[in-house]
Amino acid sequence: GRAPSHERNREAGSHPKVMRAIDHAADVGAHFWMLSVLSRHNLGDIDWMLDLAEARGARVIFQVLHHAEAHDGGKGAAILPVDEAYRDALRHLLRAREAGRAVGNSEVGLRYLLDWPDFARHRGTAPHKGVRCVAGHLYVNIDANGRVFPCSLLVDEVQADDWREVGLDAALARATAPRSCSACSATAFSEYNLLYGLDPQTIFSWLQALRG
């Protein structure tokens, strides 16, 4: 978002670095997207981010806070908006997308998030019937130590093998073991699951977006 909200989410001095990277990508003609994590600090910056993306020939993917405490030390809870503020932002993004603005999320993905029952609980049961999580089956997360997880949200919850020690097949087999969640509010994973579930609207939306 704007410099003050961005640096409250990240760290002092980080905003100029991000802007230099965006400007450089645009100057060399790169086809690039931006990612914005929506917090209580930058919900009011959505239109500013869309203006920036459109001026640079890019798109923005918006996601809600979803990281496990193992990743953020519990800091995410301090900047998590109340549920209705998130829903208002998602409705705003749906209207912006319908107006042809540079929203990278699919319409189905945004509506999926809009129906999420409780944003403080990042994992649970899918709010839409027929959306099945395929983490561990069609995609995995491999950390820097070689451990294979179904997805990055489960690093503090499931036992994982180092594929270099047990072999990739064995590590992948453990990643497909049953777990407590069947869905999550992480934008990337919900979009993956809609794509791999062959939702036609989501597929069409991403084909359109990737064609520019």
Notes on the protein architecture:
Helix content is 43%, strand content 9%. The protein has 212 residues and is mainly α. The strands form three sheets. A two-stranded parallel ribbon has the order 1-2. It has a two-stranded antiparallel ribbon with strand order 3-6. Strands 4-5 form a two-stranded antiparallel sheet. Helix 5 packs antiparallel against helix 6 (107-114) and helix 6 (107-114) crosses helix 9 (187-196). The mean pLDDT is 89.
Features:
212 residues, mainly alpha, two-stranded parallel ribbon, two-stranded antiparallel sheet, 10 helices, 9% strand
| Shape call | globular
Indicate the radius of gyration in whole angstroms.
Answer: 18 Å
Q: Describe the biggest sheet?
A: 2 strands, parallel
Could you list the spans in which at least 5 consecutive residues all have pLDDT below 50? Answer: none
List the helices and strands and how they pair.
Elements: H1 3-9, H2 14-27, E1 33-38, H3 46-55, E2 59-64, H4 69-72, H5 83-98, H6 107-114, E3 123-124, E4 141-142, E5 148-149, H7 163-166, H8 168-175, E6 183-184, H9 187-196, H10 200-210
Parallel strand pairs: 1-2
Antiparallel strand pairs: 3-6, 4-5
Helix pairs in contact: 5-6, 6-9
